[in-house]
Please model this.
Amino acid sequence: MKIAVLVKQVPDTETKIVINANKNGIDESNIKYIVSPYDEYAIEEAIKIGGETTVISMGPDRCIESIRTALAMGIQKAIHIDTQGKSYDSYQTAAALAKVIKDGGFDLVLTGKQGIDYDNGQVTQMAAELSGASQVMVIDKLTINGDKAKVERRIAGGSKEVYESGFPLFLGCEKGLNTPRYASLPGIMKAKSKPIEKKSADELLGGATALVEFTNFELPPERAAGKRIEGEPPQQAAQLVKLLREEAKVI
Amino acid sequence: MDLNLVRQELQKLLKEKLVPIALECDEKGEFPIEVYNAVADAGYGSIYLPEEYGGGGSLDGLLVVMEEFSKISPAFALSTMSSFQLFGYNIAHLGTPQQKEKYLKPLIQDRKIGCWALTEPDVGSDAVHVKTTSKRDGDFFIVNGSKTFITNAPIADFFIVIANSGGKGFDSGNAFILEKGMQGLSVSKPFKKHGHRSSPTGQVYLDQVRVPKENLLGTEHKAFYDMKHSLDIERLMVGPMIMGTLKTLIEKSVIYAYSRQQFGQPILTFQLIQEKIARMRMHLEMVTAATEKAVHSLKQGHSIKSLATALKLYAAKVGVEMASEAVQIHGGNGYTHEYGVEMFLRDAKLLEIGGGTSEMMLQILAKDTIKDVGKKFGVI
Model:
């Protein structure tokens, strides 16, 4: 089975985000980048399934670090789609990825349920559509049996949906699917000699133009100081109801 | 070797496995064996051991690993180093192919724990006069004596034991590889210590231990020469241990002083607090510079004896002083166990004693310096 893992490099979850001067993005200096955590479940799942595994990442040169992490964990080879300093929206990203995935003849495409930077949660579904494949998002269980995959996803109320699908298939992975491994030292040493094929994002787009433009970023307003309600429980409850009704206007 | 990747992946492992239990292990005096096993399985312990036996062969990598351990638990760094460096590196450096197969491979691949035993109840700094004896008996050596203050002794599978060979002066040392379970070999319970409490230290008793001659490590009578290189590395390791310690203490101190209010402002705005932070940073930079120079010299094949000696002396001293300052910045909170600051002070103190006392480091430096000048001018 040919498996592709789509990996996005994102700012570390502990990053203090600063908006750039043009207000159309974030200030990328002094940011520590990591593999988007949900993508780690995808990497782990691909390694567990085995077969021919390829990690694909689209972004500037720095995202090779994330590719190397995936290779060190155990993925066999890589494709880096170089954005060469340009920005692309979800649709363009999906178009470029779909082209690489179709050309590569992958059966299974695993990725995180969303990137944890912009949290758009669109690329996987669009790339699946553009490559004519099925897709199931937010899965936390996967079983492959011959030419069929059985996947499960949790839905509201503690129930779950179970899907069965043929290939090619795109899956967005959720926490709980597995426990991602750390790269071992031998893994890190082997990663050095694993091949990374470079492709140009511009050439893969096939004329897809951006549908979304970022124009203005704002940080959420500072949270106002909390209000402490004093007194005995009956008075506190009465006061709380009053505040919820009159100030917060939620009841 | 991609050192950034090593650091990143090791940090992930330690954050999940060592960070949550480091303080508790210190308090209870327990060795975090699960973390040791995870580190051994992932290959980070053997980062400076030969690649042909599954190691990483990287001295720079060893520094990263020692620093990352020491950021969280200098005691864990010490035990891991004793196993993989003091035991493992000596086997890699001096061992026969059969010894490497038998002892190095299981250390690297099978979670075995090693230790290195030189110090005795009556002999520490004056190493050449060890009282443990070794006498040839056919295809065996009979080893008698006892060792003390041996890191990992209570939990070790493998031991390197230094004994008197019956030779003269510096030519009177034999090193042997011993295994847990050999008749006549026993160990004490872990000592209760001031610091490095989660690193088990204990005694080794040797009562008529029959050691096969194949287990002689290095050249007969030459153990005191053979061990020199390993001692340089051991002293050099105090560099990254203190680098890790200082990095943690600096972060903790700045964050604490920023949030701690007195007289209506964060204590971080007080110059007396800033001075302490500046000094911590100064010493961190100096220890880092000296460590990097020592690594560079070692790679060029130069002797690092004087530099490693000076580095150990200096790093241990500033480690104790700066850990004390970090406690001071944290005030009463710093004096409690929960804040995880005073542990570093207790741990740093060991480095002025273990691996050669600061007094011995000074004596070695004085002797070497006088000899160098004497040679240059043909005097003394």
